Amino acid sequence: MFRIHIRAIHVPTYVIFGANTDVGKTIASAALTFAFKANNPSFIKPVQTGYPVDSDARFIKSIVGSASIKTLFKYTDPVSPHLAAIQESRIVDDDDFVGKVKEEVGLSQDQAGVVFIETAGGVNSPTISGTLQGELYKRFGYDAILIGDSKLGGISTTISAYESLLLRGYKIPLILMFDSNYKNHEIIEKECKTKVILLEQPPSKHQDSEIDIKNMVSYYQRQNLDRIVEFLNDYHKNRIHDLEEMKSAKGVWWPFTQHDLVKRVMVVDSAVGDKFFVYENGKIKQLFDGCASWWTQGLGHGNTKLALAAGKAAGRYGHVISPETIHEPKHLLTQKLLELTNNHFSRVFYSDNGSTAMEVAVKMAFNTFIKRNQEKLPTDSLKIIGIQGGYHGDTIGAMDLSDPNVFNSRVSWYTGKGMWFDAPVWELSQGKHIVTNIPNHEPVQYDRLSDIFAESRSDLKGYYRELIISRLKQATEDGMVFGSLVLEPVVLGAGGMLFIDPLFQRTLVEVVREPQTWNPKSPPIPGKLYLISVIFDEIFVGMYRLGNNLPSVSPLLGVQPDITSFAKCLTGGLLPLAVTLSTDEVFQSFRGNTKMDALLHGHSYTAHPVGCSVALESLEIYKNLKGNEWNPSKILQLSKLNKIKRVNALGTVLVVELTSAESGYLSNAAGDFVKNLYENGVFVRTLGNVVYIMASQTTETKVMDEMLDLIASLLK
Amino acid sequence: MFRIHIRAIHVPTYVIFGANTDVGKTIASAALTFAFKANNPSFIKPVQTGYPVDSDARFIKSIVGSASIKTLFKYTDPVSPHLAAIQESRIVDDDDFVGKVKEEVGLSQDQAGVVFIETAGGVNSPTISGTLQGELYKRFGYDAILIGDSKLGGISTTISAYESLLLRGYKIPLILMFDSNYKNHEIIEKECKTKVILLEQPPSKHQDSEIDIKNMVSYYQRQNLDRIVEFLNDYHKNRIHDLEEMKSAKGVWWPFTQHDLVKRVMVVDSAVGDKFFVYENGKIKQLFDGCASWWTQGLGHGNTKLALAAGKAAGRYGHVISPETIHEPKHLLTQKLLELTNNHFSRVFYSDNGSTAMEVAVKMAFNTFIKRNQEKLPTDSLKIIGIQGGYHGDTIGAMDLSDPNVFNSRVSWYTGKGMWFDAPVWELSQGKHIVTNIPNHEPVQYDRLSDIFAESRSDLKGYYRELIISRLKQATEDGMVFGSLVLEPVVLGAGGMLFIDPLFQRTLVEVVREPQTWNPKSPPIPGKLYLISVIFDEIFVGMYRLGNNLPSVSPLLGVQPDITSFAKCLTGGLLPLAVTLSTDEVFQSFRGNTKMDALLHGHSYTAHPVGCSVALESLEIYKNLKGNEWNPSKILQLSKLNKIKRVNALGTVLVVELTSAESGYLSNAAGDFVKNLYENGVFVRTLGNVVYIMASQTTETKVMDEMLDLIASLLK
C-alpha cells in the first residue's frame, strides 16, 4: 500500500551542518543542546565514524545529561562514512537510511521539545551510500543550522556551504560560529541573509576527561545560550505563524479556479522528488504530486541539478536579448532539439509557454499556406481543422483553435475558427482493449495495445478516410478555407484525457496532405507542395511524457508534422520555456527583403539563458533514464472494476474514468475518490469524472505499483 | 568618453581559485605555470598579503625562471586582504582594482602564451574592498581553474566552492588537486561536470630554500604535466571553435527578425552588469547593453543575488501547481505587489509574459463590464478604446488591442478590435519642452518637464475633453460597444517610444468613467459603478523603469486603473514572470456558484516559485537603490543638435529621434548612428529612426553621462 509520511512541526527539528569538517560542529551542537536543556532536547547522530573512540553523542550526553541521545549507524574507521561503509562492508541504501532517521526523529518528537540532527563532515560530504549529505537530508524537509568556519579562509567555506544548502532548498535560520581574530562573522553576516550568533572560542581539551567536561560545562554556562533559545523559539513561532497565515492565500487569484468552491488551500512548505510537503493543522504531510503540477514534472521537485543549471546560467548571463544574438545554452539546446527530432525540422522558435508556442505555430502555418498557394486567398478568414475536445491554451488565438467548450464559453473574444472531428478513441474497458466512439460503427476490440498502435494496421483506414474526406468536402463546399490541421497527437489532454485512435490521426494527416481529394475549391499543387500544413501540439505529450524513448510522439503515429510545439516537461518541470519547431519550408516562407515578411512575434524573455540551460540539463538527464511504467497486469485488473468505465495508461500517464451518469469538466462525480486518495497521500486533480495520475519520468515503478494497488483498494 | 574594453581570447587566461585556503593553491599554480614553461607563461598575483615574507610570485619565479611574474597589490599583514587593507590604510576601490588587473593582463597577453591569475584564499574570500573574490573576478569574464581540497572534508569544500563559482557564471574547465588517501577526487569527479587532474602530494618543505626549490622542480618534472598542457590546449581550442561555430546560429529562428537582413550575429559569451562580453574575430568585446535586453534589465546581467534567488526556489520547490495552492515566494510576492501599489488592488493573477498578462487583463475587463451592465449586451463584439501606436504583445488577443500596424499587418487572424486616439505627445525639441501632435492645435511650450506632468495642470484639459467626447459619441452612435480602455501609461513603447501628454491620458481615463456624457446608447449607471473599466499596460514602464520611486507609474498620471499588468523588470531582468493586478470589484465579477463563472485561464508554470523568488529579491533590491538619471543639461544640449528631431528622457529611458524624411518601424535611417555606437561599445536597437538607450536601474549616472557625451560627439 502507498505509504504516507506525516510529521509534527510543533517540535522544532533542525539538521546541523558544518561549513567544513573541523569547525567545531560537535561543540556547537552541544551548545545548542545545552541551550535547550530545559526543553527535553533530543540529539540524533545518524552516522558516527571512528566509533567507539569518537562519539559525538556521548560527548553531548556528558555535557547535557538530560538530553535524549542516539547514534544510528556506527563505523570504526575514522574516515568519511562512504569509505568506512565500504571498508566494513556495511553499506546502507539511501531509502533505508532515510527511513531509519525518520523513524528515530518521529520517536524523539513524541517526547522532546526540540530535536537536533548532527551531520558528519561538511554540507557536501558524502554519506554512507556516497550520496552527498545535503542532498540526502533534504528529503526530510527540516530546516538547517550551519556551523560557520572561524578559521582563516572560513569566510569562503562558510558562504559556499551556505550557498550549497540554499541550492538544495534548505531554510537556514541560523549560522552559529566561534569568534576569532579573523572576524569572519562580519562578512558572513553581510553576505548571507541569516542570523549569525557567535560563541567564544572553547577552552582547549583537557587530558583528564572529567575536568574537560567541567571546563566545557562552565564554558557553556558563560555563553549566554538563552540568546539561541530565544532566537530559535521566535523563529519557530514565526515559521508556524507564516504557514498558518499562508492558508488565507491573501491576494492570490488562482488560475482556472472558482474561488467560491475552494474547500482547502494546500500550503506547500517545500517539495522534493514526487512529493509535496504540505502544512496542515500543525503537521507536515507528504503528498504524492499526482497531477505532476499541471503535467510539468519530468524530473521531480527540488531537483538540485536543475537548480544548479538555473543558477549557473543566471550567474553567467542573466537574460540576453534574443534577436540576432546567440549564447551557449540557446545554441546547444537548439542543436539538441533538432537532433532529438531526427533533423526533420530545421528551426526552433522560442517562446514562454504552450499558448504562445501554439500562437506562433498558427502564424507559421498560415504564412506557409499563403506561400504554398501562390494566389490571393481570403486569408483573413482562414480556418483550422481539429479534433473535438482539443485544447491549446488560453490566449485568444490558442482558444480559437478549439471547438466551443466550457473553457471558452464566457470569453467575449472567443470565436472558434475551425472545423472539428469527433474522433474515435482507444481504451481499456472491462479487461478489453477497444477502439470506440467510431461514428456509425461498433467498437472494435484488439488483443494488445501494440496492435492498436501498429503502423501496419489498416482495419479502419478506409472507413476513416471516407469519413474524413466527406466531412472536409462538405465544409469546403460550404466555403471554409483551411490553413492548417492542428492536432494534439495521441492524447487530448485538458479536453478529458482522450486517447485518440492513432490510426484516425494518422489517416487525417495523410488525407489533408492530398488536397485534390477533398478540397475542390483550392487548386491542387504539383510536386512536393501540399496545400495545408500540419501542426502538432506536443506540449502535454512531448518530452518523454508518453514514453522513455519519445521526446516527440511522432514515431507513435508514424507521421511527421510541419510544425510542432513543446513546453511543460521541456524544462524538467522547473520553469516556463516553450519551443515551436518548423521544417525548412515553413521557415523559408518568412524570408524576404523586408522586415514585414518576417515572423514579427517575440516575447521579452525569448530563449532566456536560464530556461535554455535548465532544458539542456533536463534533456541530458532524460536521455539516461531507464524508464518506468504502469504495471500492465494491474491496469488490466483495474479496468474490470465496476466503478471504472475505462482505463488508459501510456508512459507516465494513468487515466481512470469513473462510471457515472454525469460527465464533463464541470462534473464532480470523482469527489469522494479524490478525497480518499488525498487521505492516503496522493494529491490528484480531475477533469470531471476523469481522474488521472501522472508520475514524473523519474518516479520509481514500485511507487507506481503502490498507487495502482491503492486505487484498486479504494474502488473495489 | 565611453570606455570600451576589448580583450584577446587567443591567449588563454585563467583565474585560479582555491576550494579553501591551505589547499596548495600556489604549489598547484606553479605546476600550471611550470607545465606551460615552453609557452612563455605569465603569472599574475593581484593581491599578496604577508609580503615580502610570503610571495607566491617569487616562489613561482624560483620554479619557473622563464615565467613573467607580477604581484599587483602587496600588504604586510598575513591576513585576509580586506583586513590587511584596513590595517595598512590602503583600501583599493573595486573599479580601480579591476582596471589595474585588466591592464596587467592586457600587457601580459601581448607577449605570453598563457596567463594565470592567482586569487587569494577561497572562492568567496573577500578581496581588498571586502567584495567577495568570485564576485569581483567575474567582471573579467575569464574562465576558472579550481584547486581542489585533498584533505578530510575536502569533498564538501571543493563541491561547494565549485557551486559558488557556477553561481557566479564561471566556466570551470579544470579541477586540479593533490592525491590523498581520502580519494576525494573520485566523488568530486562524479558530482562536478569538470575534468579532474591529480598531482602527487608535494614533498614537504625543506629548510634550505635552495634544496627546497630543487626538490620542487624535480617533483614537477615527475608529474607528467604535459597532461595539463594537452587538456587545456584542447579545451581552449574547442572553446574558440564553439564560439566560432555559434556565429552561424544554426537552427535558431529569431523573433522579430528578417533573417535575410541580418548582418551580424552577436555571440554573447557572458554578460555582467550592463555589459555583454561579445566574441568577435578572436576577441572578446565588452558592449553596453543599450536596449536593456528588450527592456528587461533592471538589475543587470549575471546578478549573483538573482542567481541565488532562482537557485534556492528551484532547490526548495521546483514548480508547484498553482490552483488552490500557496507557497512562500508566491505569498510574499503577492503581498509585496499589493503593498507597492498602495492596496489599490486586491488580487494578483500570475502568468508568464506581457502578452498573457494583457490577455488576462482584457478577459477581466470584459467580465467586469458585463457584470456592471446588468443586461444583455452584444458582448461578442466588445471593443476597446486605445491610443494609436500602442503595443500589448504578440498573441492574437493582445494584437487585437492595437490599431493596424506593421507588426500585425501579415497576421491572418488579426482584427483590431477597438477605436484608437491619435494622442498628443511631449518632447524636448531644439531646447524646448513642448507638447505637440495636438489635433488641430499648435504645439504648446512649457518651461520645465515637471510643468507638463503637474497634476494641477489644466491648460488643455477642456480641449482634450471635447475632443475625446466627440469622438466617443460618434463611435457609439456608429454602433461600437466599448468594454475597456487600454493604455500604456506615460510611454508607448514598441509603437515608437512616444511619450504621451499625461494630461491627455488622465483626461481620457476621467471621461470614460463618466459614461453618460458620451455614451448615449448605454444606460447611465447610478452610484459608484462605471460602465467600462480601465486597463494599464505597465509591462514596459512599470517596476522602476521610469523612476526610482515608481513601481507603478499611476502616480505620474494621477489616476488609477481597475487593472494593471507588470512583467519585464519584475524579475530584475532574469526570466519570464508576469502579473495582472485587479481591484476587488473586478475579482468579484468572477465569483459564482459554478466553475463556469470563474476566470478559466492559466498556464502550466503560473506563479512558478523560481520566478516569484527572483521577483521578490528584485523588489527588495530596487527598494534600496539610490536612483540614477540622464543628466538634464546634457539632454537639453543634445536636443539642440540639428540631426536630432526630439529627445525624451525619463527614468532609465533615453530616446533620440533622428531628423529624417522617412520614419516608422521599417525605416533604417538610424543605421550609421547605430553602427557608430556599436563601434564605440554601445549596443542599441532602434524603432525606425527612433534610437533609444535604456540603462538598467543600477547603471551608474557617470556611465549614463559618458553615453550622452558619446551621442553628442557622434551627432554633432
From TrEMBL, chains A, B:
Gene3D superfamilies: Aspartate Aminotransferase, domain 1 (3.90.1150.10), P-loop containing nucleotide triphosphate hydrolases (3.40.50.300), Type I PLP-dependent aspartate aminotransferase-like (Major domain) (3.40.640.10). The keyword Transferase applies. One of its GO terms (biological process) is biotin biosynthetic process. Signal peptide: none annotated. GO terms for cellular component: mitochondrion. It is found in: Mitochondrion. Its main location: mitochondrion. Keywords: Aminotransferase, Pyridoxal phosphate, Transferase. One of its GO terms (molecular function) is dethiobiotin synthase activity. The keyword Transferase applies. This is Uncharacterized protein. It comes from Boothiomyces macroporosus.
